[in-house]
Specification:
By secondary structure, chain A is mainly alpha-helical. Chain A has 13 helices and three strands. In chain A, helix 2 packs parallel to helix 6. Classes of the chains: A mainly alpha, B mainly alpha, C alpha/beta. Chains in contact: A-B, A-C. Chains A and B meet through helix 5, helix 10, helix 12 and helix 13 of A and helix 4, helix 9 and helix 11 of B.
């Protein structure tokens, strides 16, 4: 019995890892063989970043049951701090890969710390109110990052949130220039690194889900009062999930930020938070493999439809609405089942006729 | 004197937020859903009004009426097609659908009108009021906005307290199942709520664009989020709360822009929201509900 | 043990308590407990002491305040007056999860299982504080994780088996039949290693044969785990047969305390249940 249970989760998890590894190997060899067009190559790193973002948000929304509308805020913190870390380490660490890795860890940690600080007051709220407050924090973070100035000159590193306080010496160079965002970023992000990030994210989230912490988190989601009554410190576990999720989102943000030569804070707005949420919901709440797949498809879909130009986002919207109706609406489901029954009836009849 | 000027401007912006927030709060109160497409209905209303005045050359008042009718129909259609089939499903499913509707409206507008901003001509022709020998100027837009806001508030309060439909709305928001057992047509009541909310959104759209004359497909998005914040601020589900929240938000926004920092006004507004929610978790006028064990 | 407040009463050697509990510290010591909701007094001057291996019952008409008392004892509500001592420690101001750690576990009148999780996982959530495995070792899957999980599985299965639920270990808690869910809630409460469990209407919705089985199981829980049981129940047959002491409440106040025999003959109890007869 015990072995069987263990095997069940083990099997499910291996399937997820395997899917991701196989997908990586295929895409990596395609890209190396030069079969992939340059625009498709350009999708690879953002896909990895969005998979990590979706999986980490799924931890919060699907497993913990808390709606967060500010995930892009953590992504933004990661991206901008990662850009700063990478720029500062430029002369210290020679290896690009190592520098990217350090920047990712740094950006992740910073996002995690911010998540913790935000979590202290915010996690006292629940449900829709928590969602609204995370939205508010996302906007606040975007606002602050969008007015951040950072640069280096001969006196070292400077950072400020107003131009007047930002006095760079002669020959000083801006890393982040207020509303103009980060420019001249060295593109450190690579697809293999993105793949490693995805693996790491999966490793952390899946291990967390299948541990006593994960059980406690799910228990809090299913029934908060009962969870308290069996000795679970509800706030502590919501906090753990929140911080881990922020940490991972921060790392993904670093990868994302270091994939473009310039980026502004407006990228990390409410719409991006919502997009990540859409990945999670369409992939299935609490379904990790689902998040991986839906993040990939839903990121590629609008990009692949670029030839449709103005129609593509409208199509995307229609697809989104229809998918929600077909997966959730009892009435639509009923109609679908009636139609499919009729269709199969017709086919059966035909079969009978041909047989007869 | 500048203080008074800021205060009046703040109230004026707040009045627009309040009208939008009413739509959010009524829909939330009745359907328990966060209707993120509401902000885009504002934009649709403004475009309709723009078309009627610019292309058809009709007077402003006609354009408002047409916009109100168009948005009311739009609201009912959206509710019937996208939200009604999802009644009783997890709130997240409805939320995502609302986001889909929001994308749809924005992109449809972009397809029809293009993404370049249109110059919206103010519907107000009233001369600005100058007081204290030029120390204080109150524009016609401000006066009209505040007047319309007050009228709407009085009208809605009377509607919900005196009329049969209004009472049915309150009953459904209190307890949907019980209301149904009392013979109230819940579906019809929800449609009505969407209709009223969308009609208000049309008015808000016209007023908003009269004050800030650029009209784009994304015009409704940010005021939508702000107004939503205002609704939460005042206690989501509460009609007086939405009014209070909207006006307070407008004042806070104007003051923080004037006295603290223009760039950080967003951060300040949202920080105030968070602080309010931490002190009063159900908003200023919201009801705190204790979970029963 | 040495930190107990001086004024903790000891279980008296006479009257209702089991002989083996005599002279020991009571597991639950409630003094003068009361709570007001707004202006309404829901519970007032509620006193009870429960010995370490006692089975006590709490009965009373609907709305008498029984579940409110359970909520006060477990820290869900903070009392307006009086104190609750669990194993000699005052629970004043403690959050619910800390009160549970003092040794008091409960079930709920309207079942509150973790319905999306399996029965086994429900029990393992109950064992949460007992599973010694750090956050890091579960994240990184260090050997400590596997040891802790294996031990937890073993014990959880044992507990399920004890209540005859081993067969459903793998099933979603929410999909189990009503009676099974009630028993699973008891197993989950037992998994927290309590010294007393509070059962809120454990037989509600059960058929007579299930109830008979439950009566047997309640006694067996006490005899196996050597813990106290305090239960609310409307099934008088169960209460009179299983409980050694019974407290009767009405309008938030105790109107009678004693053995089943004493309670059955008490005129105040009869009046509370049947109403006053005018033409007596």
């Amino acid at each position: 019995m015990k072995k069987l249970l263990k095997n069940k989760t083990f099997l499910a998890n291996s399937r997820i890892y395997l899917t991701v590894i196989v997908a990586f190997l295929v895409m990596f060899s395609l890209s190396n063989a030069g079969i992939l067009s340059s625009s498709w190559k350009g999708y690879l790193v953002p896909i990895c970043a969005y998979i990590s973002l979706a999986v980490s948000l799924n931890l919060l929304v699907g497993i913990c049951g808390e709606l967060s509308l500010g995930h892009a805020g953590f992504m933004g913190i990661g991206a901008f701090s990662g850009i700063i870390f990478a720029a500062l380490l430029k002369d210290v660490v020679v290896s690009d890969t190592l520098r990217l890795l350090l920047a990712m860890v740094g950006g992740g940690l910073l996002a995690g710390i911010v998540g913790f600080l935000i979590g202290i007051p915010v996690l006292r709220l629940r449900g829709d109110y928590l969602a609204i407050v995370t939205l508010a924090f996302g906007e606040i973070m975007k606002n602050i990052i969008g007015n951040l100035y950072a640069g280096v000159d001969e006196n070292g590193f400077h950072m400020a949130i107003t131009t007047s306080k930002m006095a760079l010496g002669e020959g000083g160079k801006y890393i982040i220039n207020g509303p103009m965002g980060a420019t001249g970023v060295q593109k450190l992000a690579t697809f293999p690194m993105g793949f490693l990030l995805v693996l790491f994210t999966l490793f952390v989230v899946l291990n967390l889900i299948n541990s006593k912490e994960g059980r406690a988190i799910k228990a809090v989601r299913d029934n908060r009062i009962a969870a308290e009554s069996v000795g679970i410190n509800v706030t502590a576990f919501r906090m753990k999930a929140f911080v881990v999720s922020a940490f991972l989102a921060g790392m993904a943000g670093v990868l994302f930020g270091l994939n473009y030569s310039s980026i502004t804070a407006t990228k990390f707005n409410f719409n991006t938070s919502i997009n990540i949420l859409v990945f999670v919901v369409l992939g299935g709440m609490g379904n990790i493999l689902g998040s991986v797949i839906s993040a990939t498809i839903l990121y590629v879909l609008p990009e692949a439809m670029r030839s449709l130009e103005d129609y593509r986002m409208i199509l995307y919207a229609v697809v989104l609405i229809l998918v929600m109706l077909f997966t959730w609406s009892p009435k639509v489901k009923e109609i679908v089942s009636v139609i499919s029954a009729k269709l199969s009836g017709i086919f059966k009849k035909k079969e009978v006729e041909t047989n007869g | 004197m500048s203080f008074l000027q800021y205060l009046i401007n703040g109230i004026s912006i707040g009045a627009v937020y309040a009208i939008i927030a009413l739509g959010y709060t009524m829909v939330y109160g009745i359907a328990k859903m966060l209707n993120f497409a509401h902000g885009d209905v504002i934009m649709v209303g403004a475009y309709v009004s723009y078309c009627v005045t610019s292309y058809l050359g009709m007077p402003a008042i006609v354009s408002i009426l047409v916009a109100v009718v168009a948005c009311t129909v739009l609201g009912i259609v959206i509710e019937g097609l996208a939200y009604k089939p999802l009644r009783g499903t997890p709130s997240l499913a409805v939320l995502i659908t609302a986001i889909g509707v929001s994308y749809f409206l924005q992109n449809a507008a972009q397809l029809i009108f293009g993404s370049a901003p249109k110059n919206f001509k103010s519907i107000v022709t009233m001369q600005p009021l100058t007081l204290f020998g030029g120390g204080l100027t109150i524009t016609g837009e401000v006066i009209i906005t505040i007047a319309i806001c007050v009228a709407i508030m009085v009208g809605l309060t009377l509607f919900t307290s005196k009329t049969r439909m209004g009472k049915a709305m309150r009953a459904v928001s209190e307890d949907r199942a019980a209301a149904q057992l009392m013979g109230i047509n819940v579906n019809q009541t929800i449609s009505l709520t969407f209709a009223i909310g969308s009609a208000l959104a049309a008015v808000a759209g016209v007023l908003l664009c009269s004050t800030v004359p650029t009209l784009m497909p994304t015009t409704g998005a940010m005021p939508g989020i702000r107004a939503f914040t205002a609704a939460v601020f005042g206690g989501i589900g509460s009609i007086p709360g939405a009014m209070l929240g909207g006006i307070l938000l407008g004042i806070i926004e104007t003051f923080s822009k004037a006295y603290i920092s223009t760039q950080f006004s967003d951060a300040i507004v949202f920080s105030v929201l968070i602080i309010i929610l931490l002190v009063k978790p159900a908003g200023l006028l919201g009801k705190q509900i204790q979970e029963k064990v | 043990m040495a930190d107990y407040p001086k004024n903790v009463v000891q279980v008296p050697t006479f009257n209702l308590f089991r002989e083996q509990d005599a002279g020991k510290l009571p597991v639950l010591d409630v003094r003068n407990l009361g709570i007001d909701f707004g202006g309404l007094t829901a519970v007032d001057s509620f006193n009870i002491t429960i010995g370490p291996t006692e089975i006590a019952g709490l009965i009373g008409p609907n709305g008498a305040g029984k579940t409110t008392i359970f909520n006060l004892l477990t820290g869900v509500y903070q009392p307006t007056r009086g104190s609750v001592l669990v194993n000699g420690i005052d629970i004043k101001g403690m959050p619910v999860h800390k009160v549970n750690k003092l040794g008091i576990a409960r079930t709920f009148q309207n079942i509150r299982l973790f319905s999306e999780m399996t029965a086994l996982d429900n029990v393992k959530v109950g064992m949460h504080n007992e599973i010694k495995c750090s956050f890091l070792s579960s994240l990184l899957r260090l050997p400590g994780y596997y040891h802790a999980e294996a031990a937890a599985n073993l014990k959880a299965m044992e507990l399920l088996e004890f209540m005859g639920l081993a067969d459903v270990a793998d099933q979603k808690a929410g999909s189990l039949p009503y009676g099974v869910q009630r028993r699973l809630e008891i197993v989950r409460a037992l998994a927290t290693n309590p010294s007393i469990i509070l059962l809120d209407e454990p037989a509600a919705g059960m058929n007579p044969s299930e109830t008979a089985e439950l009566m047997h199981q309640i006694r067996r829980i006490r005899d196996t785990f050597h813990i106290a049981i305090f239960l609310i129940e409307h099934d008088m047959n169960l209460v009179m047969n299983v409980c050694e002491t019974i407290a009767v409440v009405n309008y938030g106040k105790i109107i009678c305390k004693g053995t089943p025999e004493q309670v059955r003959q008490n005129p105040a109890v009869i009046e509370a249940y049947l109403g006053k007869e005018d033409n007596d």
